[in-house]
Amino acid sequence: MLSREKTFTKEVHMKRIALITLALLFSLVNLSHAARYKVVEVKNGGTIKGKVKTAVSVKDPTIPINISPKEKPEDAKKIREVCGTSQKANMYLVSPAGEVKNVFVIVLGVKQGKAAPKKDLVIDNTKCAFDPLVGIAYVKSKYVIKNSDPILHNTSLGKIVRKGVRRTVYNLALPHKGQIIKKKNRVSGLIDVKCDAHSWMRAYVYSSKHPYVAITDEKGNFEIKDLPPGKYKVKFWHEGFQEVVKEIEVKPGVNTLNVTFTKTRKPAFMSRL
To answer: Where are the beta strands (DSSP E) in 90-164?
Structure first.
């Protein structure tokens, strides 16, 4: 009798666990659907237009080309011929007026709007640096990874989950000059690009589900068009400055949003040198 009761109790317990598991899975599915971006026709859309400057005096550093002592002599010689002894970081590209280039401007929490462009992002390993240094990719498009150098490069793309935490998306070996690898982009967010063979190489990509992302030009200017009217948060991200988040109510027509960086920071790649 006791054995039957124990069996019955165990079966009830297992059923409860199964129901709880199904409920959790259902919740996760609902959350994933809720997080999906919806493509709609945008009527009376607004434009966010502005400029990014710095109040801090900065100087672009020079990066030393440090070759690993583990390299074979012939490989080390080849790397030195291709890469040289140093290169400009191109981190602080700031005009005399304090205008900052290469800042990601990201509209957060956009649930619906125009479709993202069907455009692949090409990342080239050239002259021992990544080109472009910053770029925008779109989910469901492709990464096109190239090697234009006559030496091995290893391109690693990883999502920056939070400070100090990076989750690898792709890790691609490109041993030959002219080699091209294409990969589907499935992950949104800020992507860190590095070369596992050469510690000084780095780049950054913002992967987006929507088109409401921009990169500032040499005058610090940016423009994001056709945004559905509403209240938004806008993130300004640069590897050498503390990020800034601003709130804005977007109305039909042009909406101005200017930002000034007041604090610098040490990028992660600098600790690898």
So the answer is: 104-108, 112-113, 121-126, 129-131, 134-138, 142-147, 153-162
- Pairwise CA distance, residues 261 & 240, whole Å: 10
Shared domain for 11 and 43, answered yes or no, is no
Query: Helix, strand, or coil here: 86?
Result: strand
Contacts 24+ apart (CB under 8 A), 28-31: none
Q: Which helix (H) or strand (E) holds 19?
A: helix 2-34
CA dihedral 135, 136, 139, 141 (to 10 degrees): -70
* pLDDT mean over 100-106: 99
Buried b (16+ CB within 10 A) or exposed e, 106-133: bbeebeebbebeeeebebbbeebbbebb
Q: Specify whether 200 is located in the same domain as 226.
A: no
Q: Say yes or no: 11 and 50 in one domain.
A: no
Domain extent at residue 23 = 2-35
Checking DSSP bridges between strand 129-131 and strand 104-108, what pairing results, if any? unpaired
Quick check: is 121 in a domain?
yes
- In the chain, the number of structural domains is 3
Q: Tell me the per-residue pLDDT of 210-261, one tens digit each, with 9 for 90 and over.
A: 999 999 999 999 999 999 999 999 999 999 999 999 999 999 999 999 999 9
- 110 and 216 share a domain? yes
Whole-angstrom distance, CA of residue 128 vs CA of residue 202: 10
What is the spatial distance between Cα 38 and Cα 84, in angstroms, rounded to a whole number? 48
Q: What is the pTM of this model?
A: 0.86
